[in-house]
Amino acid sequence: MSNMKPVALQLYSLRDALAEDFEGIVRSVAAMGYVGVEPYGGMPGGLRATAALYQELELEVCNSHVPFPDEANLESALAVAEAYGLSRVAVAYLPETEFATLDAVKRVCERLNRASEILQANKVQLGYHNHWWEYKELDGQATLDVMLGELDDDVFLEIDTYWAQVGGLDAVEVVKQAGARAPLIHLKDGSLRLEDNMTAVGAGEMSVPEIVAAAAETAEWHIVEIDRCDGDMLQAVHDSYKYLTSNNLVRGKV
């Protein structure tokens, strides 16, 4: 596939291993060939030392997940952006209860818009990463439609394609609909049953090539994330990289 986008790893996938041997695991990720990484809130290791390690290994930080950047968390979010040289960060999660009704979804969007304004004043863009509950239908409307209408244009979406599919929508169509509003695409795979563990990308039921094709003109990065899996997570992360690169779906280093 022409115009291949670089591939990164959401390091949350390896959170248990990182807690035991942070530097060794990051070095393993770099050796696999990942072009970049996406850190998450609460990672082990100090920001300066971590940023220096990524720089040494030529791992580009494509984005970082941060706690919701309200008044209590604003300074920490800005510190993350500064340490990694980022112009954007994303909220990784808001509870399912905050998406129970259309009015609740609109309130979430209002909070995201306010946080975005504050971050933009500091030259940082805010994004939102979904789970499955943001993609169900409420009163005949897809939550995504509501969010695209209510969020300011400057708030980007980081679409987790697996959770969008589990939520009941077609991930390919979600990516097409979001277009340039979704510069970051999360790729994961599995049975599409909510209760099941996930698999390496390419070993499950997701239409990965079609998703990548749908984002060909709008994605900046494809990001592998595996929340949980049977077997060795490091191997699943490696297998995901090999599947994506060997099928010319993403651009890696090796």
In short:
By secondary structure, the protein is of the alpha/beta class. It is built from 10 helices and 14 strands.
For the largest beta-sheet, the strand count, sense and barrel status come to: 10 strands, parallel
Distance between the termini: 17 Å
Shape: globular
Helix content: 25-40%
- Element order, helices and strands? EHHEHEEHEHEEEHEHHEEEHEHE
> If you average the pLDDT, what whole number results?
95
Low-confidence stretches: none
Q: What is the β-strand count? A: 14
CA-based gyration radius:
17 Å
> Which structural class is indicated by helix and strand composition?
alpha/beta
Strand content: 15-25%
Keywords:
254 residues, 10 helices, 18% strand, globular
Model description:
- With about 250 residues, the chain is of the alpha/beta class.
- Helices cover about 40% and strands about 20% of the residues.
- It has helices spanning about 15-20, 20-30, 45-55, 75-85, 100-120, 145-150, 160-165, 170-180, 210-215, 235-245; strands at about 5-10, 35-40, 60, 65, 90, 125-130, 135-140, 140, 155-160, 185, 190, 200, 220-225, 250.
- Strands 1, 2, 3, 4, 5, 6, 9, 10, 13 and 14 form a ten-stranded parallel beta sheet that branches. The chain has a two-stranded antiparallel sheet with strand order 7-8.
- A hairpin with a 2-residue loop joins strand 7 (about 135-140) and strand 8.
- Helix 8 (about 170-180) runs parallel beside helix 9 (about 210-215).
- It starts with a strand and ends with a strand.
- The model has no long low-confidence stretch (mean pLDDT about 95).
